[in-house]
Backbone:
């Protein structure tokens, strides 16, 4: 994939910097994006109009064939006999000198040890505040859109596994039971993650949260699940191969939901539709978020917009970008700026209260030239029997 | 768990620093260790003799109950109405001021944006070169040793899954076949990772590499597996619950191995035993590594010690520490310093050549007061039919 790095070129020109430098492993989405290379240990990527990699001997062969770099160098090409950090930053200094680099922009989270070591060698290192690569990454190429589509297809199979596990459970004394054992959040997660694995995906964390667990949006859920209470299933898998994610949430009740849970569910679907109506290039993430807040507030539910201190009601943002990172730009919240065609975003309204539990519905959406395409093809039904 | 942080106290006193600061998510092992807290987004941990956390509102409740911190603060406790990085580092400055911190040690990979922002507020920020927490983490507490033992038990079940998959395959035209389909590296990895998942473990990457793939120690393997060739299976799972890892490698041949592969296998086991004979507190990682090089060189195999340019033979270090990180201190290589009781290490000699493939055997070992305890209880047999 050849990303459009013209915004990075412009930023370097604006700041009169000779290059942009990353020192990170490929779990860092900026590193994976700019280098086009996957390695478990930190390596260096320099962008000066072209992309140059500096890697260990162990990664050299792979980097030459697999990365998108114009040149690949080995530590040994610049090493002397000394060891330790000083020798490492001196080595890096020689690599930069070789590329005529006297001044660098780096991301905020660039390692301070490396930055200070380069500064000691007279190289000007400035931490940029704009998240240039984060911004570039927020607009997906056609190739990236195919990868998130693939991820969403697998995500829906995993959601089937979760829904089937809950639907297929027996109810004994109000508790869900499968194969003679309590059906727990952990068992449903295993069903989800096994499905992901079989399709070459993994999930660092899957949320299967019922009861009071579901009332805390960051609680991933544990222990036995009960009939009649909303169970939030939020799956955000990552492709082992491509590194791209999908993200979707459904809420299920096995048996009879409370009237309040049903109201919340309908309201959240209404909020999701209202948000989607706003999504188009030029609309802001804040406007999308406001559409959700409007629906909830009109129904008398608390929101952070109405009461920044509330611990119940709609207590998070409306959504976020998804790509190499599961949470990335753009933000659909009070801080959300203008959407662009090519953004891949979530819309995930929800309501929470320890006395009721939690309800959330989340679709996965592509911003298109004339609005949006919903990448989600999964039914929304609260009650499953 | 209450770690022994006296070395950190001493370093702060030596450097006349008021505190040690981390700004990272809990995937950073130092952060997880010092904070005792797991969160997906970066948060701040200050150590000044006690441990203090600064987290977002979303994490506040969990941080208070789950972390090992003496105090937990919210961003809102120090926020003003501004946004952006400047406001964030000013907020952090107020938090540090509240704890009377004027000078800080930070790890090398601390974010330069945060460091520079604090420096602008007159706080002295020095990146330390010693990896103080890395050193502290290299000596495990009894509680940590139980966690790596648990991880190794699960790892051995996963290795059984791999061995069974290979052993149970049919051979058709020299290729391994299972259920009528070619047995691929990917299918064996899925068997491994499904087993890990069912026990609450995950593996970012499992190596199942045959043929020429196995000749590159960093190649995780792909495609159909063949009879008669060594298949390296290297599994390093992480507990979803505790965050601790195990690490073990076996090499299998389905069918008849070549004479050369058999020689390599015996030699590698001999090298492993020779290395174990050296392991005790006070022995250096370099001495352990030299014991492996001696065995290989005596048999006429190339090593990086003998020829730093070699691309075949024994072309990596002998091992590494394992804990919250899968690769951590101590190093068992040319740079390896003295071992200490409580180190948890791998010993993993191997030989590689694209014309032969690769062979590696790896045990997982605890350094004890009077030598070592091998935490591995898994047979070593090359040929499986």
Residues:
């Amino acid at each position: 994939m050849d990303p459009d790095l013209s915004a990075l070129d412009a930023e370097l020109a604006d700041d009169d910097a000779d290059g942009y430098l990353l020192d990170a492993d490929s779990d860092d989405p900026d590193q994976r994006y700019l280098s086009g290379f996957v390695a478990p240990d930190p390596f260096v990527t320099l962008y000066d109009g072209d992309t140059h990699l500096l890697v260990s001997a162990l990664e050299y062969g792979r980097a030459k064939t697999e990365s998108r770099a114009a040149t690949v160098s080995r530590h040994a090409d610049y090493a002397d006999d000394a060891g330790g950090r000083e020798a490492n930053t001196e080595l890096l200094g020689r690599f930069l000198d070789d590329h005529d680099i006297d001044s660098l922009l780096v991301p905020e989270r660039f390692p301070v040890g490396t930055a200070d070591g380069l500064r000691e060698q007279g190289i000007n290192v400035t931490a940029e505040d704009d998240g240039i690569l984060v911004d570039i990454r927020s607009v997906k190429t056609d190739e990236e859109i195919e990868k998130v589509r693939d991820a969403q297809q697998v995500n829906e199979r995993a959601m089937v596994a979760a829904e089937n596990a809950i639907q297929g459970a027996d109810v004994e004394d109000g508790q869900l039971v499968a194969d003679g054992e309590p059906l727990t959040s952990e068992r449903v997660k295993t069903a989800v993650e096994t499905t992901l694995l079989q399709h070459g995906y993994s999930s660092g964390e899957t949320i299967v949260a019922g009861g009071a667990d579901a009332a805390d949006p960051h609680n991933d859920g544990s222990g036995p699940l009960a009939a009649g209470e909303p169970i939030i299933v939020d799956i955000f898998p990552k492709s082992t191969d491509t590194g791209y994610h999908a993200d979707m949430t459904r809420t299920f009740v096995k048996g009879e939901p409370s009237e309040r849970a049903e109201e919340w569910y309908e309201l959240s679907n209404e909020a999701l539709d209202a948000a989607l109506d706003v999504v188009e290039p030029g609309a802001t993430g804040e406007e999308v978020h406001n559409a959700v807040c409007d629906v909830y507030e009109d129904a008398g539910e608390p929101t952070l917009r109405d009461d920044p201190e509330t611990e119940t009601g709609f207590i998070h943002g409306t959504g976020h970008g998804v790509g190499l990172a599961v949470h990335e730009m753009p933000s659909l919240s009070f801080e959300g700026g203008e959407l662009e065609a090519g953004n891949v975003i979530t819309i995930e309204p929800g309501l929470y209260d320890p006395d009721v539990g939690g309800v959330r519905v989340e679709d996965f959406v592509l911003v298109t030239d004339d609005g949006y395409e919903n990448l989600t093809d999964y039914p929304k039904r609260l009650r499953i029997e």
Q: What stands out?
A: Residues 139-384 of chain A form a domain with the Creatine Amidinohydrolase fold (CATH 3.90.230.10). Residues 262 and 382 of chain A are 8 Å apart (CA to CA). Chain A touches chain B at residues 27, 40-42, 58-59, 61-62, 83-86, 106-116, 125, 127, 129, 186, 190, 193-194, 197-198, 200, 202, 204-205, 216-219, 316, 327, 335 (CB under 8 Å). DSSP finds ten helices and 22 strands in chain A.
